[in-house]
Every structure is written in structure tokens, then in C-alpha cells.
């Protein structure tokens, strides 16, 4: 590959998913986000939770950038002392979802059957029913949760929230295999 | 196992192995002793007072130098680390004490210098309350440390310190900071120390990739115009002899980055000189003519490469580098060897063929001849006009026989010192602020270097601007009689900025001219012997007097005001466009 392919401003911008597996340490989230801040890169979404391995946390970070840039970012993340492993994948190599919640006033449910129809057609579900409001939950890609938002908008949406993307890779290798390989590559 | 050393008899020392209740402050100092620390640079204050109180009882084992500003403490620790190869240790209190360290920490981070910084912090119940002298030191230092950690319980101290030393010194070295709350310093705990040998999420030492080594050897053996660039990685891994054996066997010309300087004697026939913006003519020009470029322990900084789009495009690149994040960061490697420089060079040596590249080497010699005639000779051997920085450095080099430790600040004098000091001693002999370009680095760093290597001649070469940024450390130099020689090259200008203003801003000398104080008077007020030279006739004897003087000495040399450093690769330009005038 020629040198110019590695210039930051060249190359096609794509959505990449960065995974980092880390220890659970105070301040580590800050250390990881600094890698982006310093390079003036905006994070689309970031989620952190415990992974399949106890005490190992999984960061899922979504960014739109070039291959050259994401490669460097991931190396900088992997370099942090408390990071066990960091890797990146283009969108098509992951299965990903988001969750969205919609709060609708009960008053708009007078013609309740209509909302119920929308919920059913959208593969969403009603999470909570309260004398004043109902809460609807929908899992899907952002286009899908957005589409449901548009459909519910005429009924008055009191609150709407969307989680960041969570993702799983399509390949079959598990974390412990990666960690063992990494272990073997170093003294 | 606890390892408190105590006198068992007059003759022998024994290790006491029973556990002992100590305060967090005592535990910290015992931990430092376990790591072999004997020198600290620091400055006390409210939140670190328990540590200083404990230090009072350890004064014979831990020699503490009271600096005059925490920035000086950080730079002194850097100078100490750079000359000894051991991590430099500095203490500061919370809030302003800690923030004053930051320039030094950032400098150490970019120049891969192992530092262990200990800061006091307000008591843990006051964290986040904007208590007196409270700063989020962890947050503030995060972008400029290799690792940092806040201790809120005394019993965390030994493990935190053990990790700090391990992280600071392993792999690519760097600064770490441990922030210790005041209650943790005061609380008692059972002291036990175990050195850190491994951290599960940290892999500092890559295994050598034999395939990459074989591929590198093949490229080198088939090269017609191979060219080695070496950086500080060679010094950090003590690979000076390995580098020499490697280039001598394969007959490869080699050039250095300013942090790699003195890894090979300046006058070694294969040492072709300095890379980068004010480097030598041939090493820059011929970067774009070599066919295989072998980078050893360097990171292709923009001051070395100029415009990357026109940098060594014709060459196959072999990059030997311990930090994987540096590989393919700026320059794409055809063969990446993610390894310690010494390990890689030793593995390559038996695989490379003995060779000579006489015609290729002659090109460097031809360039050197042109540069000598056009630039060097008039710079180092002027017979009239004001004194020139280059002639001063040339004389310092001759009179100290190339054996001194040269510590520099940032700017014209730095480039001149690098260019004209003829290093003969390949132990760590050159200390400068390379990556961060920190004015004010030199004086405290030289002080730390002299403390670390008291038997070596340490010369601080500083401009009049940089000297005034940290000159308060003359107080520390005087108090502890640190025998550093301070050479101020005074051109009454911020010379490097002025040079750029002259060349690229139509001589609009915007706030670069300085009206300076009486430097000799300042030195003398600090009780330091000082002298000033303005004439060529007395230059040599004055430098000799400085070198011969026992103890600290300040020599101010008044030099030409509007002198320029050439050659020069204009910022962002190709290395091929290096200008001789």
C-alpha cells in the first residue's frame, strides 16, 4: 500500500465499530475518549458493560472515519495499560442493534387501537402502562427506531431515548483465544 | 516480603522479614527504597506534608533536592533519568504543585523518559469538593502520562509504586503519576513489598518476529543504497555497540535524530550526520535517494520527515520499533519489526552479509564537503565580526575533547550544539527536549543530569530566552553545589522565532527581541561564579576556565544577534528541498 493511503484526510469514510476489552478501572473511560478528543474525532456512540468474561469490560465505540485513521486509533487504545485488547470492524462484519424507548401520553390512547397497531406492525412492544402515559420499546437499527418515532409523532411523544449501538462480530474466535494469542506474541 | 534494611552489627546488614506497621507516607518511602531510588527532586506543600515529614527520617538514604519550582523538579528528574537510565522521581503537592509538573511530564511522555511523579492530594473525603489546593490531577495528567493512579488507602501504596516503576521503565518508557490523598499518607498499614513483573493487560515486550527479521535481512542484503536512521530507541536499549556492529558489517551510512545523537561517535566514518529541519545536507537530501531505509528506534517525527508525501517514496522501509502504535503511524513500513532495538539488531547481525557501499557513501561525503565549505567552515572558523554560536560550540567541543554531557534547551543554540559538538562518548551524552520543544528544560535537566552523573562534565547550553524561563533553579544548583556548567549563548533575541520571522514573515520581528538582565550579576547573586565574554580573543580561555572550574559556573557569551542556522528544511517542505542558505 502506498504512503498516501495512510494519510488521514484520504480514503473513504465508513462506519467502524471499535471494541476494547478492559479492566474495570477508575478513569479508563476518560483515557479512551482522550484518544479521540486529541485527534478531533467525534464519537457517534459509546457503550460499556461487562463482557462474557467476568471483570472484563467491553467498550463498543462507533465512529465514522477512514481505515487509516481507525487503525491508528485502535493502536492508541490498545496501548493504554489497562486495555486487554482493542480491535475494529467495518459495519458489515458485525451484527448490531440499538434499543429505543418512547413515552406517549395516555390521552392520545383514546383511539388506542391505532397505537397498538403501530406497535404490533413495528415489532415493538408496550413496556409500561400508567394512568398518564405508556412506554413503548423497540429494538432495531437506528433507521427502524427512527421510523417508529415518525409514526408515533402524531400522538405526541413526551420523551424519546435511544441507546448507543451494541454489536457482536460475525467471526467465531472468542476473547480468550485472542488473549492467549496476544500473550504468546509477547514475552 | 518486607525488606527493611537495618543494622544487625557493625559489619553486616540483614533483611528484616517480619511485617511492620507503618504510615502510608513511610510505606511510600520504603517502596521507593525497594525500587533502588536514592535521589528525589521535589517541593513540599500542604497535601504532601506527611510524606515530607517521613522523609526527614530517610534523608540519608533518599537524597532530596529542593527545587525552586515544580517544573524544575520534573525537568531535573528527566535529566537524571536520561543520563542514568533509571526512572527519575519527583514530588509535588496537590493543586498548583501538581499542575506545575505538567510541562515536564508532557516532555517526558513525548521523549519516552521514565519518570515516577508522586503528588499529594487533599484528603479523600474532600475529593471533588473544590477543597483548598484541590485539582483533578488524575484527569489533568491523563493525556500526558503513560499511566496514572490515585491512591486513597495506605495499603494500596506498595502495589501502586511497584506498578508505577514497572510501567515507567518497561517497553517504551514514559512518565507515570501516583496521586496520594493525605489521609492515605497518614493511615497505618502493614507494609509488605513485592516488585511488579507483569500486568495482565499490559504487553511491553514483543517477542521477536523471526519472519520479519529474515525479510529485513533480505532487503538489506539486496540493497544498493541502504541507509540507517537511528533514534533514542538505540540508547534506551543500550544498543550502541550493536548499532555499530550492524552498520560496520553491512557498510551502511547512518544518520541520527536529535534524541539518538551520540549513539555512535560523531566522527565514526559511517556516521553521516543529523536528520531533520536543521540537520546535515546529505542525510536529508539522500533520504530521497536510498533504496532501503532502515529506521531503528525512531518515530518519523515531522521535524525529521518534512512533507510525508515526498519522503523516501523510492525506498523500501524497514521500521524497527518497540511501540506498535508508532509502526505505520507516519510512514508505512514494508517490513515492520516490532521489537526492542538491541534485540532486533542482534538478531539481524548474523543474517546480513558483509558489504561495502563505497560509491553510495561517497555521495554523503560529497554532500558533507559542500556543506562544510558553504556553511560549516564560515560558521566555526570566522575571523571577524561578532562571535557565532557555532564557533563557541566548536571550541567547547574541542576543549572538552568531545567527552562532556551536553544538555540543551530549545531553539537555535540547540540546533547549533547538536550540529557542532563532536561527541566521542557513546554513553548517554546528549540530553535535549526533542518532541515537546520545551524552553526552560535545559537548566533543571542539566542539574538533574549532574546529580545522576557527578563524575561527568555536564554542560548546559542555553539561549537567553530559555534561561530566563527556569533560572530560579540556580538556587537549587547553589544550595546543593551541583557542579553544572551553564553556557548562555546570548543573542538578545528569541533566535529561532526571529529566524523564521526573517525568512518567512518579511523580517517582522514581532516580540522576539529581548532586553536582558545582567546574567553574570544574577549568577553571582546566587553565589555562583560567573563570567561574560564578548570578544573572540578571550573566548577560548573563558571556556577553558569554565571547564576547569570546580563546582557550578555560569558563562555568558554574547553572540551575533541575527545569526541563522543552516541548512534548513522549511516547515512542511520535502527533505530534498533542504536549503544551504
TrEMBL record, chain A:
Pathway: Amino-acid biosynthesis; L-valine biosynthesis; L-valine from pyruvate: step 1/4; Amino-acid biosynthesis; L-isoleucine biosynthesis; L-isoleucine from 2-oxobutanoate: step 1/4. The keyword Transferase applies. InterPro entries: Acetalactate_synth_ssu, Acetolactate_synth/TF_NikR_C, Acetolactate_synth_ssu_C, ACT-like_dom_sf, ACT_dom, AHAS_ACT, AHAS_small-like_ACT. Keywords: Amino-acid biosynthesis, Branched-chain amino acid biosynthesis, Transferase. GO terms for molecular function: acetolactate synthase activity; acetolactate synthase regulator activity. GO terms for cellular component: cytosol. It catalyses: 2 pyruvate + H(+) = (2S)-2-acetolactate + CO2. Its EC number is 2.2.1.6. It comes from the Bacteria. Residues 17-91 form the ACT domain. The keyword Transmembrane does not apply. One of its GO terms (biological process) is isoleucine biosynthetic process. Dimer of large and small chains. Catalyzes the conversion of 2 pyruvate molecules into acetolactate in the first common step of the biosynthetic pathway of the branched-amino acids such as leucine, isoleucine, and valine. PANTHER family: ACETOLACTATE SYNTHASE SMALL SUBUNIT, ACETOLACTATE SYNTHASE SMALL SUBUNIT 1, CHLOROPLASTIC. Belongs to the acetolactate synthase small subunit family. This is Acetolactate synthase small subunit. It comes from Adhaeribacter arboris. The lineage of its organism: Bacteria, Pseudomonadati, Bacteroidota, Cytophagia, Cytophagales.
Amino acid at each position: 500500500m502506498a504512503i498516501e493511503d495512510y494519510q488521514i484526510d484520504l480514503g473513504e469514510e465508513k462506519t467502524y465499530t471499535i471494541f476494547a476489552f478492559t479492566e474495570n478501572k477508575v478513569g479508563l473511560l476518560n483515557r479512551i475518549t482522550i484518544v479521540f478528543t486529541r485527534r478531533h474525532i467525534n464519537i457517534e456512540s459509546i457503550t460499556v458493560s461487562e463482557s462474557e468474561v467476568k471483570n472484563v469490560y467491553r467498550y463498543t465505540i462507533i465512529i465514522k472515519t477512514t481505515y487509516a485513521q481507525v487503525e491508528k486509533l485502535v493502536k492508541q487504545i490498545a496501548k493504554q495499560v489497562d486495555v486487554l485488547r482493542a480491535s475494529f470492524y467495518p459495519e458489515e462484519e458485525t451484527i448490531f442493534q440499538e434499543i429505543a424507548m418512547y413515552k406517549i401520553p395516555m390521552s392520545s390512547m383514546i383511539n388506542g387501537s391505532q397505537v397498538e397497531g403501530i406497535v404490533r406492525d413495528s415489532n415493538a412492544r408496550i413496556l409500561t402502562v400508567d394512568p398518564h402515559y405508556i412506554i413503548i420499546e423497540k429494538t432495531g437499527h437506528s433507521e427502524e427506531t427512527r421510523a417508529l418515532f415518525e409514526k408515533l409523532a402524531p400522538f405526541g411523544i413526551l420523551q424519546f431515548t435511544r441507546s448507543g449501538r451494541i454489536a457482536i462480530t460475525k467471526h467465531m474466535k472468542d476473547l480468550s483465544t485472542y488473549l492467549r494469542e496476544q500473550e504468546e506474541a509477547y514475552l | 516480603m518486607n525488606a527493611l534494611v537495618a543494622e544487625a552489627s557493625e559489619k553486616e546488614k540483614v533483611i528484616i522479614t517480619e511485617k511492620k506497621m507503618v504510615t502510608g507516607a513511610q510505606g511510600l518511602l520504603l517502596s521507593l527504597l525497594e525500587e533502588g531510588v536514592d535521589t528525589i527532586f521535589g517541593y513540599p506543600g500542604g497535601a504532601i506534608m506527611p510524606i515530607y515529614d517521613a522523609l526527614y527520617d530517610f534523608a540519608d538514604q533518599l537524597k532530596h533536592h529542593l527545587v525552586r519550582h515544580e517544573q524544575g523538579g520534573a525537568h531535573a528528574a528527566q535529566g537524571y533519568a536520561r543520563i542514568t537510565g533509571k526512572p527519575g522521581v519527583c514530588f509535588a503537592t496537590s493543586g498548583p504543585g501538581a499542575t506545575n509538573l505538567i510541562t515536564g511530564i508532557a516532555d517526558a511522555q513525548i521523549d519516552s523518559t521514565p519518570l515516577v511523579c508522586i503528588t499529594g492530594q487533599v484528603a479523600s473525603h474532600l475529593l471533588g469538593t473544590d477543597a483548598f489546593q484541590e485539582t483533578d490531577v488524575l484527569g489533568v495528567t491523563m493525556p500526558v502520562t503513560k499511566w496514572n493512579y490515585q491512591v486513597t488507602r495506605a495499603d494500596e501504596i506498595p502495589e501502586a509504586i511497584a506498578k508505577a516503576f514497572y510501567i515507567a521503565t518497561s517497553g517504551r518508557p514514559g512518565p507515570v503519576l501516583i496521586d496520594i490523598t493525605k489521609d492515605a499518607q497518614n493511615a497505618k498499614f502493614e507494609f509488605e513489598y513485592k516488585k511488579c513483573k507483569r500486568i495482565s493487560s499490559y504487553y511491553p515486550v514483543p517477542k521477536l518476529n523471526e519472519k520479519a527479521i529474515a525479510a529485513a535481512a533480505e532487503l538489506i542484503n539486496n540493497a544498493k543504497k541502504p541507509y540507517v536512521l537511528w533514534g533514542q530507541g538505540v540508547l534506551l536499549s543500550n544498543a550502541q555497540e550493536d548499532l555499530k556492529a550492524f552498520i560496520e558489517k553491512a557498510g551502511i551510512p547512518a544518520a541520527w535524530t536529535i534524541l539518538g545523537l551520540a549513539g555512535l561517535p560523531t566522527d565514526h566514518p559511517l556516521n553521516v550526520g543529523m536528520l531533520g529541519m536543521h540537520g546535515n545536507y546529505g542525510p536529508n537530501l539522500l533520504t530521497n535517494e536510498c533504496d532501503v531505509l532502515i529506521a531503528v528506534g525512531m518515530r518519523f517525527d515531522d521535524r525529521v520527515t518534512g512533507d510525508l508525501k515526498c519522503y523516501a517514496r523510492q525506498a523500501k522501509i524497514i521500521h524497527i520499533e518497540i511501540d506498535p502504535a508508532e509502526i505505520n503511524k507516519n510512514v508505512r513500513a514494508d517490513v515492520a519489526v516490532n521489537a526492542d532495538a538491541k534485540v532486533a539488531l542482534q538478531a539481524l547481525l548474523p543474517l546480513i552479509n558483509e558489504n561495502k557501499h563505497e560509491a553510495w557513501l561517497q555521495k554523503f561525503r560529497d554532500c558533507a564537503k559542500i556543506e562544510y565549505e558553504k556553511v560549516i567552515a564560515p560558521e566555526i572558523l570566522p575571523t571577524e565580526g561578532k562571535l557565532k554560536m557555532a564557533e563557541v560550540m566548536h571550541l567547547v567541543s574541542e576543549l572538552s575533547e568531545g567527552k562532556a554531557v551536553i544538555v540543551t534547551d530549545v531553539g537555535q543554540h540547540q540546533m547549533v550544539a547538536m550540529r557542532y559538538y563532536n561527541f566521542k562518548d557513546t554513553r548517554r551524552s546528549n540530553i535535549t527536549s526533542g518532541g515537546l520543544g520545551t524552553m526552560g528544560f535545559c537548566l533543571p535537566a542539566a542539574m538533574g543530569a549532574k546529580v545522576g552523573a557527578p563524575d561527568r562534565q555536564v554542560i548546559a547550553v542555553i539561549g537567553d530566552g530559555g534561561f530566563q524561563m527556569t533560572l530560579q533553579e540556580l538556587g537549587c544548583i547553589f544550595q546543593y553545589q551541583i557542579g553544572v556548567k551553564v553556557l548562555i549563548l546570548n543573542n538578545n533575541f528569541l533566535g529561532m522565532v526571529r529566524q523564521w520571522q526573517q525568512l518567512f514573515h518579511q523580517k517582522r520581528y514581532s516580540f522576539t527581541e529581548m532586553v536582558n538582565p545582567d546574567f553574570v550579576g544574577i549568577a553571582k547573586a546566587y553565589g555562583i561564579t560567573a563570567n561574560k565574554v564578548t570578544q573572540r580573543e578571550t573566548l577560548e580561555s573563558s571556556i577553558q576556565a569554565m571547564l576547569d572550574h570546580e563546582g557550578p559556573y555560569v558563562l555568558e557569551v554574547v553572540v551575533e544577534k541575527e545569526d541563522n542556522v543552516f541548512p534548513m528544511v522549511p516547515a512542511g517542505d520535502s527533505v530534498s528541498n533542504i536549503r544551504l542558505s
